[in-house]
Every structure is written in structure tokens, then in C-alpha cells.
Amino acid sequence: MVQKIAREIRFNAFDMNCVGHIQQGLWTHPRDQSHRYKELGYWMDYARRLEAGLFDGIFLADVVGVNDVYGGNADAALKGAVQVPVNDPMLLVPAMAAVTKHLSFGITANLTYEPPSLFARRMSTLDHLTGGRIGWNIVTGYLDSAAKAIGLSQQAAHDDRYDLADEYMQVIYGLLEGSWRDDAVIFDRANHAYADPAKVRKIRHDGKQYSLDAMHLCEPSPQRTPMLYQAGSSTRGREFAATHAECVFVNGQKIEGVRAIVEDINARALAAGRFPDDIKIFMGATIVTGRTEKEAQEKFEDYRQYASSEGALVHAAASLGIDFSKYDLDEPIQTGKSAAIVSNVEAMTRSAGPQWTLRKLLEQMPLGSRQPPMVGSAEQIADTLAEWATGADIDGFNLSRTVVPECFDDIIDLVIPILQERGMYKTSYRDGTLREKLFDAPRLPGRHVGARARMAG
After folding, report:
1. By the 8 A CB rule, do 96 and 58 touch?
2. What residues make up the domain containing 18?
3. 171 part of a folded domain
4. Does residue 453 fall inside a structural domain?
5. pLDDT value at position 417?
6. Engineered SS bond to 231: which of 188, 249, 391, 429, CB 3.0-4.6 Å?
7. What is the Cα Rg of the chain in Å?
């Protein structure tokens, strides 16, 4: 039994507005309900369930292209529902917010293909409608198919996308933090004055990628800037995270490897004038649990029958930038320099060695993803989560779905009560915005780069 620790573990449900997200093939399980992703009632019930179980939030991933690296086309992705079809995640949020009070909503949005002014308006709108419960997962994309969808021949190089992202964030901060003063809205009915023009200004930016001469279209929202999430663990990604992110998502194979990433991000944050406590670290995890170890193993074997190896390879091929259809099972895979998710290639190399093969990769994907599941009784799962939290110095977990909704019901009914007994999980929600719940402050701290854009006075 692990002793009580002071650290409070946090849970986000990790999902996507589609049929097949991370665990490829499990949508074919007879009890899985993910095929109902087109029903608004499905997502509203989902949100109610998570809030009743004291989950911190639901984090919605997204892509704006198709996984067409495997075999050089999208056939296998379409057949296996590998993140296609996929609907817009933002449109789900108001409905889920309307039936909850505390649950937060993390939305993935690809800044590479979004005009900053229009995106800033959508984020402010969601922050208003949710009462300050919105977060933005900043991504730069990894699919050439997404670039081609807007008329480009291919995506920019990995590090170039982060250079673009740094400039994009300058524009976003200007709009969200610097266009309206906090007291710009006066709501003076007698004098027919809603806002004071002297307290609203245009944001002017003339950079390498973006030009802007416009005021923000929205009045200040509860958080102004949404909670900032980021998932890149490459060297360039960590640099970006240390500058901008408030929550960083990592995927781990070994505790010591994840801890090294966390320590590096913290050191970079200090160099950027921030504190390590300014950043919360969430690790991706998949949990299969039961009241006993035997029950959990039986459930795992049941799920395993429905997992799709081909679907897993389709998704991995896109995120790693490698066409696995060209390799035999035991042929060494050549990674080279990838334009996809560099940190994924680095993580796989750490896990399987420099000469990894398709067979080694498939061995690590028993449920149709590159994320080996945690399988065990609720007590064992609680032990494992505690070990990761302390050993890797992480703050919480992004829990990817397997068979929904039962996978989250199991965590709510079986695992969370044990964590609560150990003093490792909240027993009620705190009031306030998402940022207040995580950092005790409604706005970006003054030491964050985004605060520099604020209007003086």
C-alpha cells in the first residue's frame, strides 16, 4: 500500500469528436458507444457523468487532415475509422457547459491554419459561455493532408512550425490581453454608452507571418486568455512549452524518462522568468481496471479481441511520419528526420531501442495504440498512479477512452474512491474559473510572456 502523499492527482478524460480516437478498433466492441459521437445528447450525458465523478475536465483532441501516410492513402483510415470522420470539437462545448458547473473543456486547435483574430474571438466566446472553463491545446499540426486541404503543397518543417507559433501567440496575447482594458465596459444605459472608446485599442502587428491592425471583437472574458495547454516534448516543443504553456501533456514509457522531460521543462521555464509551479504536467494513460486483478485481466482480454493492429499502425504511421506498410515484421525501421511529431519518434526510440521493428511496435499496442495500458485492480491502479505522480513529478493524467462509457465509470466508481481515501484526490470541486482551480488566479500571472501585452493603466 502506498502511503498518503500531499500531491493531488487530477484527471482529464481524453477523447475526440470521432469514432476511433487512440485505442483503434475498440469502437467495434458491442458495449462501446463512441459511434454516437454525432448526437449532442451523447456529449451532454458524457459531461454530466464526468462532473458527477469529479473529473477535472474533458480534453478533446482534433486533427484537420486525414491519416494517409500508411500505404500512401486514406483507405485504411476510412475503413477502420482512424480519426475519420471527425467533427469540430468546439461546437460541443456550449452544450456540455450548459449541463455542468465545474467541468473544464480543453480544445485542440491548430494555429497553423487559423487566422488569429477569428480564433481569438471564438476562444473569448467560449470563455464567456463556459464562465471561464475553457482551455486551448496549442498545436501546429503534423499532417501534410491538413496543409493540402487549405491549398499548400505540404506542411512546414517541424521547427519552422514552432517559429510560426511563437509569432502567432504574440498576436493572440495582444488581442486577448491588450485590446480592452478590464474597465472598458461601463454599461451606462442612461447615457447610451456600453463601452468607453478610450479604453479599447487596436492591436498592430507586422511580422514575418502575420499582419494585423484591428481591435479584438470581444469584451474581456473571465480568463481573457484561455488556459494554455501544449503537448510537444521535442527539444523545440519543450522550449515553446516553457515560454507559453500552463499545462503540458507528456507520454511516457519509463518513469525516469518522463521525469527527465519534466525537469528539462522546469529548467527552461526558470530561464524564461517563470516558476516550475506555473506549469502542470499531465501524462497520457490508459486504464483497464476492476474490483480484483482477475476481473481487470479478464476485461483486458475481452477488449483486446476488438483492437485493430492495422488501425494502430495507420495512426502511428501518421504521427511518426513513417509508412509502416513498406516494412516486414522484423525489418529494422528507418526513422530519419521526421516532419511529424518528433517527440513521438524520440519516445519510441527510447522504448524499443534504435533498431526497432514492426514486431516490437505491435507488441506495445495490445489495445490498438502506442500507449500500453495500465491493467490491474483498483488498488493496483491507485498504486501505479501514485508511483508515476511522485516518481515522474507529474500533476495528473489524460485518460484515453477504451470502451465508453464503462471505462470512465470504472475509474469513477473504483479508482477515485481509493485515491480519495489516500488523500490524493479531491472530494469536491473548488469554485472559480479553470485557471483559478489550477493556479488560484483568474488571469495569466505577470511573469508570463502573455502578460506583457496588457494595456497599461
Report:
1. yes
2. 10-444
3. yes
4. no
5. 98
6. 249
7. 22
Domain contains 313? yes
Instruction: Please state, in angstroms and as integers, the Cα–Cα distance from residue 139 to each residue in 65, 118, 380, following that order.
Output: 13, 17, 34
Total domains present in the chain: 1
Whether the CB-CB separation of 374 and 384 falls below 8 Å is answered with yes
Q: Is 450 a member of any domain?
A: no
pLDDT in tens, 379-399: 999 999 999 999 999 999 999
pTM (2 decimals)? 0.92
Q: What is the pLDDT of residue 208?
A: 92
CA distance 450 to 439: 16
Q: To the nearest 10°, the Cα dihedral for 170, 175, 178, 181? A: -170
pLDDT of residue 351: 54
- Evaluated on CA atoms 289, 294, 299, 304, the torsion sign reads positive
* Nearby residues of 112 by Cβ (< 8 Å), 6 or more positions away: 140, 141, 146, 147, 155, 156, 161, 164, 165
Q: What is the CATH number of the domain that holds 52?
A: 3.20.20.30
Can you say whether residue 288 is alpha, beta or left, with left for phi > 0 and alpha for psi between -120 and 50 degrees? beta
Residue labelled with grid coordinates 464526468: 50
Contact between 118 and 90 (Cβ < 8 Å): no
Could you read off the pLDDT of 45-104 as tens digits, one per residue?
999 999 999 999 999 999 999 999 999 999 999 999 999 999 999 999 999 999 999 999
